Amino acid sequence: MSKRRVVITGMGALTPIGNTATESWDAARAGKLGIAPITQFDASAQKVKIAAEVKGFEPKEHFSAPEAKHKSRFTQLAIVSAREAIAQSGLDLDSEDLTRAGVIVSSGIGGVRETETQQTSCLKRGFDRCSPFYIPMGISNMAAGEVAIEFGFKGMCTCPVTACAGGSNAVGDAFRHIRDGYADIMLTGGTEAAITPLSIGGFTTMRALHVGDDPTCASVPFDARRSGFVMGEGAGMLVLEELEHAQARGANIIAEIVGYGVTCDAYHITAPAPNGEGGARAMEQALADAGGVAPEAVGYINAHGTSTPLNDKGETAAIKTVFGDHAYHMAVSSTKSMTGHMLGAAGAVEAIFTALALRDQFLPPTIGYVEADPECDLDYVPNEGRAADFEYALSNSLGFGGHNACVLLKKWAG
To answer: Which one of 118, 150, 372, 389 is most buried, by most CB atoms within 10 A?
Structure first.
């Protein structure tokens, strides 16, 4: 059976720089910083006091009181973003075969906030008095399950839990599911709400987070001053459709997904393989998966770019391995300089930004870039976005455990 073409017809997002996909993209174009002091808990006793929070999100504006009480924040963010994506897609769900519609939504940590809250409560009251909603609120797959329930999607429903690569795995897996004939519509993305005392403390003690108090120099990917990532939260959701299905209903097509590469370093629990070997193979796979797209045809990479010393150095090396001299003639930027690192949501939000970069022919910047690093010597679109002319773009995600995922997108020419 020939492989089917897959397009993006809807998007939704809640991010540290905007409460819709459009707001988030406009902010990314403008180089808006979403990092600020933590407000969700008292961080005064912890080393890390800043994060990239979703701002102005009020559950009561989107859910009834019982629903808001019994849905974790990461699930709430996913549902609201999914509603936006479905609305933008223009799908008439009453006329669709919903057994041919599926959901893939990643979350790296899920309802960690509920685990912390229930542990504290049960140490005082006894563990047999744990909330009966704890498990369904806490398990990582519940965002995917609740999104499927919301829209009645009865096809494949799953949750990749691959740390920082999860959002890209979700988008890539959904792309393959449609391309290979198993579904016509997939609602896919990632969600995370891990700005909690335990999560912040855990990433701090493993020396993964930036510990300074100045938001303007906290998440500085590829800069010589980088010293750790900034925890972010949010959700990004995309509606993917088989091309002919989308065209038959006159859908507005935003971009096309054409390739997906996924590999494992099999090297270390947190550190990337030397020279980004696994990430390089994922990028090569994505190009090959698209029918052999030439490296020189790629004009932009939305990099994983976490602002950690090893990641940014390794990812730069991986790009040079795959693209050779062309690496110096293409643009590479990290929108995590604005959003922080949204863990399981990162790849999904960055896929949205990459698709919109192709649509608008505009490169979002890497903000906060001040001091060049000789080992990171590519064009990182420093501090200000710019117009460009490009047909293909990659979105990279590289996760703890050695997970690498790369999605190749193409400008929709109509």
So the answer is: 118
Q: Is the dihedral of CA 20, 22, 28, 31 positive or negative?
A: negative
Q: Give tens-digit pLDDT for 57-80.
A: 999 999 999 999 999 999 999 999
Write the DSSP string, 5-35. PEEEEEEEEEBTTBSSHHHHHHHHHHT----
H or E element in which residue 199 lies:
helix 197-205
Q: Residues 129, 131, 136, CA angle at the centre, nearest 5°?
A: 140
Q: Average of pLDDT values for 205-228?
A: 97
**CA angle (39 as vertex; 35, 40 as ends), nearest 5:** 115
**CATH tag, 6-248:** 3.40.47.10
The rounded Cα 71 to chain-centroid distance in angstroms is 21
Three-state secondary structure call for residue 332 = strand
Cβ distance 286 to 394 under 8 Å? yes
- CA dist., res. 189 & res. 193, Å (int): 14
* 260-411 carries CATH number 3.30.200.20: no
Q: Is the pTM of this model over 0.85?
A: yes
What positions carry a catalytic annotation?
Answer: 164, 304, 341
- The reply to whether 260-411 shares the fold of 6-248 is yes
Q: 332-364: per-residue pLDDT in tens?
A: 999 999 999 999 999 999 999 999 999 999 999
Give 373's strand partners.
Answer: 376
Domain boundaries, the chain: 6-248, 260-411
